Amino acid sequence: MSQTVSPLPDRGPTGRRTKGALGSGPAKRVERPAPLRQVVYEALAELIINRTLEPGQHLVEADLAEYLGVSRQPVREALQRLQSEGWVDLRPAQGAFVHMPTDEEADQLLSVRTVLEAHSARLAADKASGDDVERLWELQKTGLEALAADDTEGLVAANAALHAFITDLSGNTVLAEMIGMVDRRVRWYYTPIARPRSHDAWHEHEELIKAIASGDATAAEKIMNQHTERTRQAFHERPPEN
After folding, report:
1. What DSSP assignment string belongs to 29-80?
2. Average pLDDT along the chain
């Protein structure tokens, strides 16, 4: 017997908007080479990070299963894992909701990011070759193209790619692992401020690349410190989410 899938409601118990982009576009069927529970987890995590599933949104297992083209069991398992990692809140008698990040949570993570990435910029300036610098300028160009196109998703991806490459240039695998642990959260927090922050951010990227290109480790560290600190401040100053 087929089950009737309940539509996403317009508002959840808190009065926040729950009906997001899931119903406005084609379904995103997951691929199955990896274990299904892992694929579903990754798919849902990415939907949360890019804010297709918005903070506070009610997550209905049947709707998510239909959207991803899977049964409800891997969705249930993925939601439990996401809850354990702080992406989802499971409320008794109410269900699952995308976690609402607090300013304190964001402040703690973005402060740690400032320390880690400032050190990676210092190391990158000591190690970067001419080819590495050329690659940084290519990533900068990609970001500027996304900025010109007013492409929020492209801005977030380009920003992450540039920062990740600087981390790679540091040559410090422990540092890279630590930055990787916070990368998803950083993208989540950065998405709502990507556009208002973009002009200043990409100008700061330009100054950072110049410092790395000249081998000025002290300047690169200082610029990255200021850059990530301004991102932290911008998150706190962002407009309220609907």
Report:
1. PPP-SS-HHHHHHHHHHHHHHTTSS-TT-EE-HHHHHHHHTS-HHHHHHHHH
2. 87
